[in-house]
Design brief:
Layout (H helix, E strand, L loop, with lengths): L6 E5 L11 H19 L4 H15 L18 E7 L4 E8 L5 H11 L4 E3 H10 L8 H4 L20 E6 L5 E7 L20 E3 L3 E7 L1 H6 L2 H12 L3 H15 L3 E7 L4 E2 L9 E4 L5 E4 L2
Parallel strand pairs: 3-4
Antiparallel strand pairs: 1-5, 1-11, 2-3, 2-6, 5-6, 7-8, 8-9, 9-10, 11-12
Helix pairs in contact: 1-2, 2-3, 7-8
The structure holds aspartic acid.
C-alpha cells in the first residue's frame, strides 16, 4: 500500500528585515529540508526529524537560537525551547536555560526523562547536567553573536530569528519543535512563547504548529493551540485557522508568523511581520525556501 504524504516546514524566525541579505540562511534551510526528507523516507518519526532539524538550526549560529542567540539585558544567554509529539500528546520544554549547547535536546530530555513538561532556570540547568548534555565552557567563544550586541532593540521588540520545525511523517504522525534566544535585550528571567506548550509550540492529531515573533502576543492568544483547536472544534481549515490567529495577533498590535501543517500534509507559513525565514517540503515533494 502506498504510504501517505510526508511534509514539513521549518523557520528561522520572523525578524527578517529587507535591509539584510539572507542568502546563506535560505540555502541552509533548503539543505535541512532535503536532509529531513531523506530521514523521513528512511522511516524516521516526525518527532525525531523535528528534533534533528532544530538541533542543526541551533548549532548553525545563523539564527537567534542556540549558538546564534543574543544575550539578555544583563549580558547573559538564557534560552528557551519546547517540542510536542502529536501522536502521543507528550511534550517537553526548558525556559531561561543557561550554559547548554542545545536547548531542544534539554527539552526532549524533560519530556522523556521526567514526569514534567517544563523546567526553568537553575533547575533546568541542573537537570540538563544530570543528563550529560553538552555544556558551553566559554559563552563568549561559543555564541556567534557574542559582543555584537543588538542592544538597540528595546525589550519586546521583535527578535531576529527563533527557529522551529513541524513535520508529518509517512505514518501520519505530527510533531513540532521550537528554540530561541528570545527577544533582543530582554529583561533577565523573561520567558516568551517558545517554551510554552500551546503558545509557541503545539501538536496533536490535527495539526502541528511552531510560532515566531513577539512572544508576549503569542502567549496572550495561545496562538499554537488556538490553531489546532480552531481546526478540531470549529472545523476550520489549516489556512483559515492560521490566518485567523495571526489576524488576532496583528489586532493586538503584535508581529510575527508561524509554520503549521495538518493531518493531510497541507502546509501553511503565514506571517504578519516584514518577513519570515522559512523552508517547506510540501505534500507533492516540492521544496521551497524564502525570507519574504
Ligand atoms: N517568539 C520569540 C520570543 O518571543 C522570539 C522570536 O520568535 O523571534 O521569545
Amino acid at each position: 500500500m502506498p504510504k501517505s504524504p510526508i511534509a514539513l516546514a521549518l523557520h528561522g524566525g520572523a525578524g527578517a528585515r529587507r535591509s539584510r541579505d539572507y542568502t546563506n540562511e535560505i540555502r541552509h534551510m533548503a539543505g535541512l529540508v532535503e536532509a529531513a526528507r531523506d530521514r523521513l523516507a528512511r522511516g524516521d518519526t516526525a518527532l525525531d526529524v523535528c528534533i534533528a532539524t532544530v538541533v542543526e538550526l541551533e548549532v548553525s549560529g545563523l539564527y537567534v537560537a542556540g549558538r546564534g542567540a543574543s544575550p539578555n539585558a544583563a549580558g547573559v544567554y538564557e534560552l528557551d525551547a519546547s517540542l510536542m509529539d502529536g501522536a502521543s500528546g507528550r511534550a517537553g520544554g526548558v525556559a531561561a536555560l543557561e550554559g547548554f549547547e542545545s536547548p531542544i535536546l534539554a527539552a526532549r530530555a524533560v519530556m522523556t526523562e521526567t514526569p514534567h513538561v517544563l523546567l526553568a532556570g537553575a533547575g533546568a540547568a541542573r537537570f540538563a547536567r544530570s543528563q550529560g548534555l553538552a555544556e558551553i565552557a566559554d559563552p563568549a567563544a561559543w555564541f556567534t553573536r557574542a559582543g555584537k550586541g543588538e542592544a538597540n532593540h528595546p525589550p519586546g521588540t521583535l527578535a531576529h530569528g527563533t527557529v522551529g520545525c513541524v513535520v508529518r511523517d509517512a505514518d501520519g504522525r505530527l510533531a513540532a519543535a521550537t528554540s530561541t534566544g528570545g527577544v533582543f535585550n530582554k529583561l533577565p528571567g523573561r520567558v516568551g512563547d517558545t517554551p510554552i506548550i500551546g503558545a509557541g509550540t503545539f501538536a496533536d492529531a490535527h495539526a502541528a504548529i511552531s510560532c515566531t515573533g513577539q512572544g508576549e502576543y503569542f502567549m496572550r492568544n495561545l496562538a499554537a493551540a488556538q490553531v489546532a483547536m480552531r481546526m478540531r472544534l470549529a472545523g476550520e481549515t489549516l489556512d483559515q485557522a492560521t490566518a485567523a490567529v495571526l489576524a488576532e495577533i496583528a489586532g493586538l498590535g503584535g508581529d510575527g508568523g508561524l509554520i503549521a501543517l495538518d493531518a493531510d500534509g497541507n502546509v501553511a507559513t503565514p506571517f504578519v511581520s516584514e518577513g519570515m525565514k522559512r523552508a517547506v517540503l510540501d505534500r507533492d515533494g516540492q521544496i521551497t525556501s524564502a525570507a519574504f
